[in-house]
Design goal:
51% of the residues lie in helices and 0% in strands. By secondary structure, it is mainly alpha-helical.
């Protein structure tokens, strides 16, 4: 009977993550788990309305999946801090971020309340090139915290070949023309 109650409490706790449930809850600090729960409960209906209006997404479900992945990216960036560079590797998730930034008061409030400061978006240019390990860091971090990477990140098009020999994105982050985020 005690095991059943404990299992229900654990499941209830996992439900509080609202889509940001880590696969290895034990690797996170209590502060990080609380951060994931808080971030998981954040919603932005104004953002959904705008992205559906602009036909970036065709449905609430499509938006919600992408918005959840955006929150996972934010979570990974916060959990890993500035210790490692993390590339944005999904055009759709990046589009959510771009649109969110345009809601400047809401984005500023989100950053302050969730992250304790502004979460900068740094486009890739010749003056601000992406770190070559950014994609690999993202992949490793995502798998460690959230498990298998969903299709929305385009993982099915990544390759493990030498970047200069293919036209696809790659795990090494070296296909400069193929990076999703800007």
């Amino acid at each position: 009977m005690a095991n059943l109650i404990l299992e229900r409490e654990v499941e209830k706790d996992y439900n509080n993550y609202n889509g940001l449930r880590p696969i290895n809850d034990f690797i996170l600090t209590n502060e990080q788990r609380n951060f994931l729960r808080k971030l998981g409960s954040f919603e932005a209906p104004y953002l959904e309305e705008k992205l559906i209006e602009k036909k970036v997404f065709n449905s609430h479900e499509e938006y919600q999946k992408t918005f959840t992945e955006f929150k996972k990216y934010v979570a990974l960036s916060e959990i890993c801090r500035d210790d490692i560079p993390m590339a944005m590797v999904s055009k759709n998730v990046d589009e959510v971020w771009h649109q969110f930034i345009l809601f400047t008061p809401q984005y500023h409030k989100f950053c302050n309340e969730m992250l304790g400061g502004y979460f900068h978006h740094i486009p890739k240019t010749s003056l601000t090139p992406l770190d070559p390990k950014g994609r690999e860091n993202f992949i490793e971090s995502y798998k460690e915290v959230f498990g298998e990477i969903p299709e929305i990140w385009g993982a099915d098009s990544w390759c493990i070949l030498d970047c200069k020999k293919c036209n696809k994105g790659c795990m090494g982050g070296g296909c400069e023309d193929e990076d999703a985020g800007d």
